[in-house]
Amino acid sequence: MKTIIKNTIILLALLGAFFQVNAAQNFIYQDAVLKDDNGKTAKVFVGVPVTIKEEIGKNVKVSIKGFMFKDEVYSTKSKDLLVAKVEKGFNVNQKDGNEVELIGTLAKELTASDLLDVWGEHEEFYFEMCTQCHAGPEVNHHTMMEWEAIFGTMRGFAKLDEEEASYLLRYLKANASDGFVKTKH
Ligand code: HEC
């Protein structure tokens, strides 16, 4: 009986954590174009966290945060992961220093709250390519910087071409301990 209660509590705690993530956050489902009020565009990339401000028919108005360098917005000041590429004249809300907020609309179907929807295919490719010699390492046990370094060797081992390498490295960094999907381990 005791173990049943214990397991139930653990399960509830896990579900709680899971739904918290889901309720709070949506993500860019695939590379997409964001439009500001003047019709200027920004390219936003898969996995970027978005806050939905408003639903307008089939579209959503979203807020995306990051650090801007020239026309590029990154998830961190150290430019670890690309969030968006902004067209000249795109309306950018400047905060402290390089910190910015982009607000614009895109099709609602280009956002998703379920991380499996966003990263499922990447994950499959990861297991296909990276478990030939060893078990697939837990992606969130490394930081973005660590992945950058490890991947330098492993992409050669897995014989990835340019496109496959950047596809996979984005998955690894986005899901790293300090990536888009912040999980504590
Ligand atoms: C051809 C075999 C092979 C393939 C394919 C391979 N690895 Fe490895 N991996 C190794 C070997 C050997 C080591 C241990 C030696 C080393 O660190 O260089 C290792 C170590 C690692 C480590 C631990 C490194 C550390 O410093 O803690 C990680 C993480 C890793 N691999 C990730 C990957 C990823 C991601 C891929 C897919 C892109 C991949 N591996 C594909 C052979 C492989």
Automatic annotation (TrEMBL):
Annotated GO MF terms: electron transfer activity; heme binding
Signal sequence, renumbered to the chain: 1-23
Keywords, sorted A to Z: Signal
InterPro entries: Cyt_c-like_dom_sf
Protein name: Cytochrome C
Organism: Malaciobacter halophilus
